[in-house]
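About this split. The held-out portion is used to measure sequence recovery: a designer receives only the structure tokens and must propose an amino acid at every position. Recovery is the fraction of positions where the proposal matches the reference. Here is one held-out target exactly as it appears in the evaluation file.
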């Protein structure tokens, strides 16, 4: 998910049933935001926590999930990773991938648990849910708190700008050079990218929808987020558009972020089993077909391993 480099921050073939409503109207997004609290409450009611202990044996969570028949998936309510569709159900690339993989692992049901992005790792480690499936960027700081699957995607940034891109903003350096007013999400990696480029003031907003509204209303000149999310949310807007992909820089080097699923640190057996199924999907090409309805393209597929990003 295009959420933070820093921590304390449609194909012709029939689409799979879980991939309904990949691109939704702003009215649906607004309704969905209101529904998040209801879904989260439902996810906790009548649901006991699955305790795990670090016995140094890779954990036993997978066996427990198979016995329960349900895995609770922590989500952040953000396109394209996990959000409320027009039918009122949680959809997005992460739930679709999770359903596909956990079915192969012998866990029949994936139960969404929407929360704030900044609460995902805390909630995971507090046993509120079992897995984080929010497209979370894999960073060394996060690898100290959780274990990641290998990434299911790679991503550059993108800008939401007024129609016609009047300030000709195509890079973070352009934003700094023109003095354009930039906004991004709370905890997004783009905060660091903007600072690296010399942007003096960065406004933080809850999500891409808030960013779109801020651009349309002229309160900011540009909203920065992940390329796919920005492209999706701009569709249908008569006053804003998405720029081509933007390459960010850190320490003078270009950055391509990768995102994966997160597991509690003791649960390496579950992570490894998840990875085996994930790599099967990659080799067969099914992973892209699962993600394509949500705006992902061949360029977002990656062979990078989590360990490469955990070591910096």
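Reference sequence for scoring:
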């Amino acid at each position: 998910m295009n959420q933070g480099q820093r921590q304390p921050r449609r194909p012709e073939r029939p689409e799979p049933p879980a991939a309904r409503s990949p691109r939704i109207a702003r009215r649906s997004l607004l309704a969905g935001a209101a529904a998040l609290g209801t879904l989260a409450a439902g996810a906790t009611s009548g649901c006991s926590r699955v305790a795990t202990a670090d016995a140094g044996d890779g954990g036993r969570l997978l066996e427990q999930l198979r016995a329960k028949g349900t895995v609770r998936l922590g989500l952040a309510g953000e396109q394209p990773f996990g959000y409320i569709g027009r039918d009122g159900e949680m959809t997005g690339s992460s739930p679709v991938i999770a359903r596909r993989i956990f079915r192969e692992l012998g866990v029949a049901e994936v139960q969404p648990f929407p929360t704030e992005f900044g609460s995902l790792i805390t909630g995971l480690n507090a046993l509120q849910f079992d897995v984080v499936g929010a497209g979370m960027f894999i960073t060394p700081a996060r690898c100290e708190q959780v274990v990641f699957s290998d990434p299911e995607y790679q991503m550059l940034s993108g800008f939401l700008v007024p129609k016609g891109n009047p300030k000709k903003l195509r890079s973070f350096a352009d934003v700094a050079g023109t003095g354009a007013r930039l906004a991004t999400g709370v905890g997004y990696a783009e905060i660091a990218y903007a600072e690296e480029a010399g942007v003096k003031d960065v406004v933080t907003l809850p999500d891409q929808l808030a960013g779109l509204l801020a651009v349309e209303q002229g309160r900011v000149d540009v909203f920065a987020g992940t390329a796919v999310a920005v492209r999706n949310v701009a569709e249908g807007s008569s006053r804003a558009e998405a720029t081509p992909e933007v390459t960010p820089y850190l320490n003078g080097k270009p950055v391509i972020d990768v995102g994966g699923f997160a597991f509690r640190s003791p649960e390496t057996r579950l992570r490894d089993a998840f990875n085996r199924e994930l790599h099967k999907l990659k080799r067969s090409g099914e992973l892209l077909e699962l993600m394509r309805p949500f705006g992902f393209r061949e360029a977002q597929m990656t062979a990078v391993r989590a360990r490469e990003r955990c070591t910096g």
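Annotator remark: The radius of gyration is 19 Å.
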